[in-house]
């Protein structure tokens, strides 16, 4: 057995399935991260297709889950953005479902958690960052830049406040991406470490880590759902700032 099998960080290793030369200095080979993101997208489409195929008056389990997902995101968008945010529902819903599916898919044995890698979460966050910034500029024009100077700020404090607000604004994609990736990596690492104790302690004493592992697995599933929800909520908050310049 390879020594890497006992390494809790081995589960986050990138493995390539193709061996193509770099294009303009970029590695375009298909890897396990891309595979599980494609799987997540396919699972979402399959789930929504099955769930909304019949549209029965008495919904099936899949239809109930699909409708609950729709209602939850719709309420989230309405509560955080208002009626002006309804046109952005497809993007928020897609983002939430993608992050949620990637998180939950990574809970399966021998799978890969794409959202544990900062490259993936930062790519999502930077798209959101530029998206809401473009929306704000199109909607408000030059008035958008007043976002970095709170109303009523003394002119003496204006340079400092502009710097602080601009720094906080630019840091949004960084905090958004690190929060998700760090939570996914920390939880999966902890599960791997506890699972290692089961084999180390043997049959007689291994029941204690197993019991703890069951509890932590349930907690990690909760964290996977919660982090997807937080990611979507923060996206709504940033969208609200872009629309209303709060």
The total domain count is: 1
Number of strands: 0
Q: Percent helix among the residues?
A: 55-70%
**What does the average pLDDT come to?**
86
SS-based class: mainly alpha
Shape: globular
Radius of gyration: 22 Å
Give the helix/strand layout:
Layout: H1 32-52, H2 61-80, H3 89-105, H4 118-140, H5 158-170, H6 172-205, H7 207-244
Helix pairs in contact: 1-2, 1-3, 2-3, 2-7, 3-7, 4-6, 4-7, 6-7
Your description of this structure?
There is one protein chain. This protein has 246 residues and is mostly helical. It has one domain (3-244). The protein contains 7 helices and no strands. It has helices at residues 32-52, 61-80, 89-105, 118-140, 158-170, 172-205, 207-244. Helix 1 (32-52) crosses helix 2 (61-80), helix 2 (61-80) packs across helix 3 and helix 2 (61-80) packs across helix 7 (207-244). The radius of gyration is 22 Å and the shape is globular.
List keywords for this structure.
246 residues; mainly alpha; globular
Offer a quick outline of the entry:
This protein is an all-alpha fold and 246 residues long.
């Amino acid at each position: 057995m390879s020594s890497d099998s006992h390494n809790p960080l081995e589960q986050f290793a990138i493995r390539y399935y193709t061996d193509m030369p770099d294009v303009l200095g970029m590695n375009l080979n298909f890897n396990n991260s891309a595979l599980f993101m494609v799987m997540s997208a396919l699972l979402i489409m399959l789930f929504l297709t099955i769930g909304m195929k019949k549209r029965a008056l008495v919904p099936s389990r899949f239809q109930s889950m699909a409708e609950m997902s729709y209602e939850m995101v719709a309420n989230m968008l309405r509560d955080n953005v208002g009626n002006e945010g309804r046109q952005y529902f497809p993007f928020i819903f897609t983002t939430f479902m993608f992050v949620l599916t990637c998180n939950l898919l990574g809970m399966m044995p021998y799978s890969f958690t794409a959202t544990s890698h900062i490259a993936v979460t930062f790519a999502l966050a930077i798209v959101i960052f530029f998206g809401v910034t473009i929306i704000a500029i199109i909607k408000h024009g030059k008035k958008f830049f007043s976002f970095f100077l709170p109303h009523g700020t003394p002119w003496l404090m204006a340079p400092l406040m502009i710097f602080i607000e601009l720094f906080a604004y630019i840091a949004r994609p960084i905090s958004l991406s690190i929060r998700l990736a760090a939570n996914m990596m920390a939880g999966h690492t902890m599960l791997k470490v506890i699972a290692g104790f089961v084999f180390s302690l043997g049959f007689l004493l291994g029941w204690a880590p197993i019991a703890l592992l069951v509890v932590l697995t349930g907690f990690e599933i909760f964290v996977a759902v919660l982090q997807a929800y937080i990611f979507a909520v923060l996206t709504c908050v940033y969208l609200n700032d872009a629309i209303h310049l709060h």
